[in-house]
Amino acid sequence: MLHRILFLFALIGFVSCQNGSGDMLPNGYKYTMHTNNEGAHPVPGQVVTLDFELVSDKGEVLDDSRLVEGNTPSIKIPELMTGPMRRNPLLSLVQKMAVGDSATVIVPVDSLPQPPDNFKENKFINYIVKLRTIEGEEAYQERIQKEQLEMRAAAKFKEEAKKDEMKEYFDKYMAGDYKGSTKTLDNGLKIAIIENTDGPKAQNGDFVAVQYFGFLKDGSSFDNSYRAGRPFTFKIGQGMAIQGWDLGIPEVPKGAQAILDIPYELAYGEKGNPPVIPAKSDLIFYINVEKINNN
């Protein structure tokens, strides 16, 4: 299974780049090597794994693969390099890299056929890449399958271990135990701090990583992040989560534990999200804000 980096290829229109400074890839994109180690470069048929960061021409971080734990992006070097593949800036870049190398390639936004809205205010995007591994496809698949089995087993164990603890937080909230630390916003959203910290709070546009357990008002749990084995990562204010999260997470400091009591209007609305969430369901979330951006 190849991961998140593939969606980046689908976005790129593959035109020559004349922006920025540094060396030039064969297909005309400007790039800069930050680290240049000795070692083999990937060849057709091999799979590379990497970290990437997308940074706007204004310095804003638009995406960062390191925020999604347990989901390392990967690329298979094609056996046959067709015209579009030869013009692909990321594919061309990684073939110049050894394990441990880092580099930036500059991609003009007008080369993207359907750029996301937050790209459109920029002239170009910096694709910052660090190469982690180079493997044969069979070895890569075996390693990934083993890691996924281990991760699922660990996640199942952690989910089971957390169920009673999370249900206790829910019961205490419903009994009014956290009333003294509960804040109610004008839109009806309630934030009850279970354990506070003096950490920073997320702002609009920040990436956050959040562990959570979701409950209906009857106490039944419909979803949690422990099942996936990693926190849920999203960008505040971009519609990547329900509105109650966009509004509630910025009220909770990094490292704090809290309850979000979200009216259905700020969750899944009148229709709900059948069959898991019935119509007009208010939702109760235990949350722990583990990271804000990369910190």
Helix content: 10-25%
Distance between the termini: 29 Å
The CATH architecture of the largest domain: Roll
Q: pLDDT under 50 segments (min length 5)?
A: 1-21
Per DSSP, the total helix count is 5
**Mean of residue pLDDT?**
87
Globally, the shape reads elongated
Largest sheet entry: 7 strands, antiparallel
Query: CATH fold name of the largest domain, please?
Result: Chitinase A, domain 3
Give the C-alpha Rg. 22 Å
Structural class: alpha+beta
Number-wise, the strands total 14
Note down, in words, how this protein is organized.
- The structure is a single chain.
- By secondary structure, this protein is of the alpha+beta class.
- It contains five helices and 14 strands.
- The radius of gyration is 22 Å and the shape is elongated.
- Residues 1-21 have low confidence and may be disordered.
- The protein has two domains: 5-141, Chitinase A, domain 3; 176-292, Chitinase A, domain 3, CATH 3.10.50.40.
Keywords:
single chain, 295 residues, alpha+beta, Chitinase A, domain 3, 2 domains, seven-stranded antiparallel β-sheet, 5 helices, disordered N terminus
Summarize the structure.
The chain has helices spanning 5-11, 83-86, 89-94, 137-174, 243-248, and strands at residues 23-24, 30-35, 46-56, 61-64, 74-76, 102-108, 124-136, 182-184, 190-195, 207-216, 221-224, 232-235, 257-262, 283-292.
